Amino acid sequence: MVARPRISPHPNDGCDEDKCYEVMMAERTILITARRDSEDNLIKTIIQLSSALIVLMAGFITQSKVDIIGLPKTLFSFSIISLTLAILCGLAEQFFSSKAYQEQQRTLEDFYGKYISEFADAPSNKNVRRSQVAAFALFVASLLSLSTFAIFEAGAKRNAEQHPATATAATAAATTATAAATAAATAATAAAAATATAAAATAAAAAAAAAAASDQPLHGQSSGLRHKIGSPDNATATSQKGRIESH
Fold it and tell me: Considering the entire predicted model, what is its pTM?
């Protein structure tokens, strides 16, 4: 320990040293007691919060319908393990703290019993400090891990909510495209049928025109024949009628 130079003059110069020592020890005792109470409250708070978070996380796993895989599963598992270790470190701090009080009490009794000439720090105080630091660090690490897990889960939930909408839009677009293709095919079929009907009508008209054209000369020839055949009969009938009238 580095020796520090004393300040002179000092406000306590001229005061009774025994009186100053008693005041210093009384104030030091108050400060030490307040520090230990604060540390004990911190450890108790860590134990209570860790226990509550473990219960909530266990309920989340039991009732959740979402599969936790990959990095979120690792973060979730790390959070539970860290909280459990924080509780164990907090309990160890309480144990070592009680043991350190016993050691300090024994040291005090030995000093006033004149078995020792100076005070020494209790050996268990080192374990108390280590347990406090470990419990606090594990609790903070579990909170950070749990926060990261919550961010990942929120992002996964948002993506899950967005994908069905995208799938629905794609399905609607595919349905519209299918309907349009069906309508186009129907129109093409109707156009083909109309074309075939028009072609059939054209063919029928052409066949009728051809038949009419082939029938017209035959009618003309038959009329001529009837004309030719009818003319001698008429002449014969007329001549016979003239002969009868002459007689």
Answer: 0.58
